[in-house]
Design brief:
Length: about 280
Amino acid sequence: MKLLNGKEVKEKVLADLKEKLGKINRQLGLVVIQIGDDAASSVYVKQKQKMAMELGYNFQHLKFDSNISQADLLNEISKLNNDDLVDGILIQMPIPKHLDSKIVQNAICYYKDVDGLTDINIGRLVHNVDSLVPCTPKGIMRMLEYYNIDVVGKHVVIVGRSDLVGKPLANLMINKNATVTLCHSMTKDLNKITKKADILVIAIGKEKFIGRDFVKKGAVVIDVGINRKADGSLCGDVDFDDVKDIVSYITPVPCGVGPMTVALLGENTYKAYRLRCDDKNL
Ligand code: NAP
């Protein structure tokens, strides 16, 4: 068994990025909008800020009261869309229930949408047109590439169909000629399907849900889940100790997919900047 080390790949992504950033004569701007005081969200925003500082970005953390009206929020997003010094805008999810997340997400200009969640960017991904793609699935693809794990013709089984992880990953895999099965909570005989996977990706948010009964011998296992245990430590959706002897590669939690997500946000911010430079009509 070999560990897929997200920290190591992150360092490579950031080093490549710093080289490109060195050729730009202005500081890139990244804005993270947080609504309310969700503790986990605050931790994720801090990780993004740390990455942004390391890359020399101008990072703004805009924090709004959980009662903010949708109209006021859309107005704030519109100001950022029109601010030439803002390259990337991200809304930290989840947001309060009175806000329509689809409307709020789509209010971001697609060329500043560093989370890749606007309808335009999702459509581009489905059509295999270059676009801003959600950071976690993009990070998973980059990690597989780094370790020379080819996906062409492989059977990739993804458990979890969220807009942020499962669905965009399925599209990225299809675009790279993998054969994809996408599973969810209504999937019958889940372990019969997962046991056929050459590459198994789990993104469901259920502590140690996947044990060796779900995994084929020699499979590559990507554990996206981040679950906080009672003692405050983190664990994934996969029972690492139970499967480690039968897999060929596996991501640990923490230090697997998590660092990739943050690194790819740095890269998406640069990509968003390039999009505006390369298309003067935007
Ligand atoms: P989500 O929006 O809650 O979606 C969960 C998905 O899992 C849904 O599609 C759901 O099916 C499916 N599911 C739930 N229970 C299942 C079961 N028993 N069997 C099969 N499928 C099941 O979650 P998410 O945002 O994708 O996040 C998933 C996990 O990844 C969480 O732990 C989250 O913290 C973590 N995460 C980590 C990173 C990172 O950087 N490492 C990034 C994003 C998310 P239905 O659609 O049928 O409900």
